[in-house]
Amino acid sequence: DQQVKQNSPSLSVQEGRISILNCDYTNSMFDYFLWYKKYPAEGPTFLISISSIKDKNEDGRFTVFLNKSAKHLSLHIVPSQPGDSAVYFCAASARGAQKLVFGQGTRLTINP
Amino acid sequence: DAGVIQSPRHEVTEMGQEVTLRCKPISGHNSLFWYRQTMMRGLELLIYFNNNVPIDDSGMPEDRFSAKMPNASFSTLKIQPSEPRDSAVYFCASSFVGTRPNNYGYTFGSGTRLTVV
Q1: Mean pLDDT score of chain A
Q2: Which residues are CB-contacts of A34 (< 8 A; sequence separation ≥ 6)?
Q3: What is the mean pLDDT of residues B39-58?
Q4: What pLDDT was estimated at residue B112?
């Protein structure tokens, strides 16, 4: 049972344009969401997070949007840069839980 | 801070052999997590420890998998006997958590790429 789903295995975007990565979840107990970025041969690294009390969190070029009614979150990267090419994982945790549940990941490729 | 250290980086073994993956968490972190990355399922949580005690091992695929954390600075994930379907990248992560991940979630190691032939 995949509680966190990233339905797009890959995404290709032109440099300078906006990249939008999507994530859906099924567990209504999730109240904290994170995005991780992973380069080849490295472990995932934290990128940005959002609590369920917010619907938007921004950090430089990265913005995460949360739509609780739709159980959907998205990561916007603008403008996209070649260094953004990586695999992006969405993750969620439930109140009182220590563990993070991850999605399958989306491979983002930024084309020059 | 050297981060989370995993060894070996790569492991190639024959089916039926025992495999041991190792992890040294960040000093001061009180929780340790073992994840497996596959194309189909992404990052799956296998087991996690809090203060060296296993809390949730519901993600361990079968009895062939076992994990230990004898002290705060070391953990192992063992597969015996190994099978080709165990081939994946195994990540260890650590964090300091009270009741939930902090704002920055986990710190991951670089992973061990396991190939069982």
Answers
A1: 95
A2: A46, A47, A48, A49, A50, A90, A91, A92, A93, A100, B101, B105
A3: 92
A4: 98
